[in-house]
Amino acid sequence: MSLVLLRGVSAAGAAALRGWSCLGSNVAAAARGSLHKSPLLQTARDYARPVRRKKQEIPSHLDDLPPTMLKKPYANIPVIDKVDDVVRRLLSLEMASQKEKVKIKKQQLADQVRKSPTDTSSLEVQVAFLTAKIRTLQEHLHMHTKDTVNRRQMLIAIDRRKMLLKYLRNTKYDVFEKTCKVLDIKYEFPPLYCRRATRRWIAKKALCNKVYQEVQKLKAPQRLKQRQEWLERTRAREAEKQASPTEGSPV
User: Fold this and answer.
1) What architecture is the 72-183 domain classified under in CATH?
2) What ranges do the domains of the chain cover?
3) What ranges in 43-122 are assigned the alpha helix state H?
4) How far apart are the C-alpha atoms of 24 and 78, rounded to whole Å?
5) GO CC annotations (predicted)?
6) C-alpha 177: how far from its chain's center?
7) Which residues pair with 92 in a beta bridge?
8) pLDDT tens string 37-88
9) 3-state SS string over 111-153?
10) 98-113 vs 123-143: helix axis angle to the nearest 10?
11) Where are any strands of DSSP class E within 136-210?
């Protein structure tokens, strides 16, 4: 009797398990279908990545430095001619950093404008040093546009060079002209009146120019009439002079 009961219980349990397994598979299938049909849950797609455009490289002002040229500390050493080629290459500009190249470039620009070999603080030498610094920072900012620290340093150097060139132009014009020509500097005259252009100021300036042009159009006929009257009076005086006889001295 007990064996019959156990067999009945085991059969009922197996049937229940089969029912639960079928129910689980149906629920999983329904969940998969709802995921595909849901507007909020979508399958991941491989979107195209944005292509970064390579910035066009500008010619550097350090390109004219020969790579076989020695670094500044080793240029005037007499024993340098006896060293090995490998050592000489290590001491040349081929293995030098940009900082060392800029130092040599500064000296080259200063040698072109300095008065004497011992001149290191004249206005034209300072302008040469600032020119090398400005050109180096311009090349750096062309590739790294978000470097605000170096941008500020470049603007400070530009303002400093403008001030020196202005003073040099007012005191020694021949030296100023030579410095600008040798260093390839285009000097622009500062504006007579400099102020921040606001929207209100721009609109007011445009209105003033428009009113001035309209007034000139209204005055144009009157000015033309005055000019014609002046020409008529001038011609009348010339005609009177030609018609009147010249008075001569009595004989």
Assistant:
1) Orthogonal Bundle (1.10)
2) 72-183, 195-231
3) 85-90, 98-113
4) 92
5) mitochondrial small ribosomal subunit
6) 26
7) 70
8) 555 555 556 666 767 777 777 888 888 888 888 887 787 788 777 888 888 8
9) HHHCCCCCCCCCHHHHHHHHHHHHHHHHHHHHHCCCCHHHHHH
10) 150
11) none
Q: Which are the contacts of 190, defined by CB distance < 8 A and separation ≥ 6?
A: 162, 166
Buried b (16+ CB within 10 A) or exposed e, 2-14: eeeeeeeeeeeee
Token pair listed for 193: 């009146």
Task: Provide the token pair at 80.
Answer: 């340098």
Task: Indicate the Cα dihedral angle 191, 194, 196, 200, nearest 10°.
Answer: -90
For the stretch 207-242, what's the b/e string if a residue is b when 16 or more beta carbons lie within 10 angstroms of its beta carbon? Answer: eeeeeeeeeeeeeeeeeeeeeeeeeeeeeeeeeeee
Identify the H or E element spanning 31.
Answer: helix 2-37
How many Å apart are CA 111 and CA 179, to the nearest integer?
Answer: 11
Tokens found for residue 5: 């009961």
Q: Each residue of 189-203: pLDDT tens digit? A: 877 777 788 999 999
Tokens standing for 217? 């159009």
What does the alpha-carbon distance between residue 104 and residue 93 come to, in Å, rounded to a whole number?
10
Q: Which two tokens stand for residue 41?
A: 């849950």
Residue 103: CB atoms within 10 Å: 16
3-state SS, residue 70 = strand
Residue entry with tokens 């002046």:
230
DSSP state of 188: -
User: In angstroms, how far is CA 140 from the centroid of its own chain?
Assistant: 10
Structure tokens at 88: 């000489």
CB distance 88 to 77 below 8 Å:
no
